[in-house]
Records
---
Amino acid sequence: MSQDNKALFIIFGGTGDLAKRKLYPSLFRLFRKGNINKHFAVIGTARREWSDDYFREIVAESIETLHPTKQEINDFTSHFYYQSHNVNDTEEYQVLGTLANRLDEEYQLDGNRLFYLAMAPRFFGTISKHIKSEQIMTETGFSRLIIEKPFGTDYQTAEQLNHEIGAAFKEEQIFRIDHYLGKEMVQNISAVRFGNNIFESLWNHKYIESVQITLAESLGVEERGGYYDQSGALKDMVQNHILQVVSLLAMEPPTIFSEEAIRTEKINALKSVRIYDEQAVKESVVRGQYGQGSLGDHSFSSYRDEPGVEENSQTETFVAAKFMIDNFRWAGVPFYVRTGKRLTEKGTRINIVFKSTPINVFREENDTNTNLPENILTIYIQPTEGFSLTLNGKEIGDGFNIDPVKLDYRHSQENLDNSPEAYEKLILDCLKGDATNFTHWDEVATSWKIVDIIRHTWDKETEQIPNYPAGSMGPKCAFDLLEKEGHKWVWEPDTWYKNKGQLKD
Ligand code: NAD
């Protein structure tokens, strides 16, 4: 039975892209399922002068793809109110506060408030300050703050931002969104590890050769060139999503699956990630930027030709790194990560590469090759979701040839269609006060410390870029990074296209 959670949502940036593409559809899904029903109201605020009616039309448009009935549209959008508001103007907060109190009474919301900052981070401090000083937080119910990435641009700015927000909200009231943590298969990492003895008992340096994490995007920067050019892949993807996935893979088992126990272990894992010096950065982290390229019949322009991007931009659109985790469990096991734009295929996947058997007993007598293919556990996060495990079996027929087979499980399309979207899950978690799948300040701080030294090292040097053609799986240095240690990337979608002559070598 779903529960009708009571809350007033105040969405700052209510006319923005994120609100329309993600937040309103997610609220509608929660409404359909009865997680919010009679006792909720939404105030959208932004600078534009919109009426409630116009706002409701926009909200209705944003949920069109979910095929609501007319009745559903009316019922849902009747809970939406619009308040034009410049976040720098103190008096306008008082108007907002009055509207909030009126809706609280009308919908019997018990003073529960969820403030969603779907705006540029430079506004986070001033909004938080005003929410407190103009008494828009309530004494009776909960007041929670959801904020979007990026949380700062380095450790120092993140600390400053945290300080500003912290003056109004306590840590347990702050919900820092990392939408990767809302993804079904990212949450499944814990199920695979802690629900299966066959994996957890092998989950350490004795049996694992390497861990590989790929977050590949096939798209370029689209309309976000201006923003992206200031950020780059390291800050946009590695500091948050990738290090979060690393912490889930590397953490010790929590004593119980609770928010506090999981958080403690994740933070411990992140604190064990080796912080490099400049020399180690040069050896262990590489970057790239895409140039023109083609894949099959499609040709793509270079990053520097994208709208909003500087013509001599040095911004990286690709990062590959080796992280080392200096603790008992992981000593010596490389965690290879890579992420980039305009890669061959869109895909997020994790490959756990197990060590080969100590010797190949099936080898020919004088054969010096003693290696059998490694067992690999793959966790597919998107676009397909599931697991696979490669095992070595005997090839059918005469002789005794070893043939790797793949046990492959993917969630069906029907299951995927019915599963909640990441934002939907995270908003519901926040309504329930469960911050397990949000990022704690200690995690943000530790991640910035890992990433800052990489940025500082790169800022001192210019890279020969562009260095990979759009449509490939990144620059040569990203392959060399593994090869020099006798490893290779397990996932090679580019090879398939190369073999068909659709991608240049
Ligand atoms: P957007 O530019 O589309 O929207 C920004 C909103 O802020 C608009 O509603 C605008 O009216 C409002 N605004 C700007 N200045 C204001 C002021 N002085 N007073 C009141 N309102 C003002 O941005 P977006 O893409 O929706 O992104 C919002 C946040 O979410 C950003 O922090 C972004 O990094 C983050 N984010 C966005 C996405 C996405 O898919 N769009 C994904 C992840 C994170």
---
Amino acid sequence: MLKQLEEIKSTALQELEDISSIKELKSWPVRYLGKKSELTKILRSLSTLPLNERKNVGAYANKVKVNLENSLDQKEQVLREAELAASAKRKVIDITLPSRPFPTGHLHPITQTLYEICDIFVSMGFQVVEGPEVEWDYYNFEALNIPKEHPARDTMSTSWIDCENESGERPMLLRTHTTSVTARIIETMQPPIRVVEPGKVYRYEASDATHTPMFYQIDGLAVDKGITMADVKGTLYEFARRFFGEDRKVRFRCDYFPFVEPGIEMAIECLVCRGAGCRLCGNSGWIEILGAGMTHPQVLERGGLDPEIYTSFAFGMGIDRLPMLRYGIDDIRLFYSSDIRFLRQF
Ligand code: DAH
């Protein structure tokens, strides 16, 4: 039996030596170490041998097994290295090929618009500031000449925060306009002031094609000695010229906002019909885009600025409508539905 083991060993090793690829190597362990191999058969039959023979044959058979297993490992390593070296030689790497494009996202159309607007005002000497979205009643209303029970409160469907003070009032809300930041700036900054205040605002409203409970606004404020109506008109006219194009007509009309006196609204010539009248502009030829005016003396005074020394103008506009007008988007909800097919277009 020892002789038989010796033979198994030498044929197996001889055969192993002749193998020249990993593929060929696959069947070798099946043949010499597998369940049906001669060696396994001998190992299994050990218990049938007389005791003294069992010891010798058993020890030798195990030695052969270990020897074959080690030889297999070595051979496999040698073959793998050889194949790797061969494939490296075969592959020519062309380092002049351009790299594969790496997919990157881009800014949301509303953010793009916001940045563009801020850039225009920054180039005119304004500074960009931000304020809190959860706001005190005071800055959103009171400081802006909208006391409790004032009818102007009803025009803004407010989302109140569920917290009460000792008098049972709810003094906090999700700001309904970015004009709340104007109230804060008047209180904290010293003139000369030139700021724009972009951000999210909230109204307690169901969404439809033209409304969402959250949308974007930007307010602006300038406080200095000798600011007049001519400055509001000049600044906003320049903004409209840069944002909508040089030849776009602009119209100013009187309007009412409690925190400005006088108050005005600015409209631009309709982007679709250029003034002729169409569905988009309700046949008027004009599209209203912002409210503005001379900051009310009481608002300045409440914030600690003397209206006898300083005058000020303010303006505020919705952002979402601007890309809608520019790209002809007819449903505001598309901006907030995260549909990548829509967003990729900008
Ligand atoms: N806050 C007003 C709104 O949401 C817009 C506005 C009008 C802002 C006139 C102003 C302003 O700063 O002067 O409807």
---
Amino acid sequence: MRVPILAANWKMHKTVAEALAFVEAFLPSVRDVEGVEIVIAPPFTALDRVGEALGGSNVELAAQDVHAELFGAFTGEVSATMLSDVGCRYGIVGHSERRTLCGETDAEVGAKATTLLRNGIRPIFCVGESLDEREAGRAFDRVGEQLDKGLAKIPSEQAEELVVAYEPIWAIGTGRTASPQDAQEMHAFIRDCLARRFASAASSIRIQYGGSVKPDNVYALMAQPDIDGALVGGASLDPESFARIVRFAPPEESK
Ligand code: PEP
């Protein structure tokens, strides 16, 4: 049984005070939520204080990125040991914004995922095609390539710790969501790729969908057999909206 995992990616939003105000409003509204993992990825500057505020709750802390090395002359970077030190249980790697804006390669993303796993942090490993790739009929090839190159060094014994996030780039922050059927088709393909690499462990790996997930569309996405959660950007910045998403109730019941 795969426990659904709903994660907030706050990107470069929220000061420490704003992050703490979110937690104060959010925690009471999800205290009764069971059978679901809830994760928040604040910016690095708020990790420590948000981690403290989440202590003892049913919400876990994640980092938005990590460096592949553990220490050294890497100005501006943050290591897996530092993230572990402030209580991160998850780390996002390979987000399309980092691939596009910072030029991260599939191999670099893979190295980051491997480092996280070695240091007891579960990677949320992002993949997804651009609009050009989708329109050219290359979406499956591109996602397959990201998985092949990025997961090459992940040991099979640790595969179940992985979370994969399928985020079509054309759906991120655009208000345009993949249809539940299109998303399911890609998630099933991703699970097949994972099965070729990790055999039976693939059935335990959670695959999140990301790209303009909102309280009103999350139910239909989560109803798909291979969609095990969501990675949420914009709609996770508001505590009430993210609380509705983690419940993923049918739209008429979620108001
Ligand atoms: C994301 O950044 O991971 C994301 C899915 O953003 P949004 O929900 O805003 O599309």
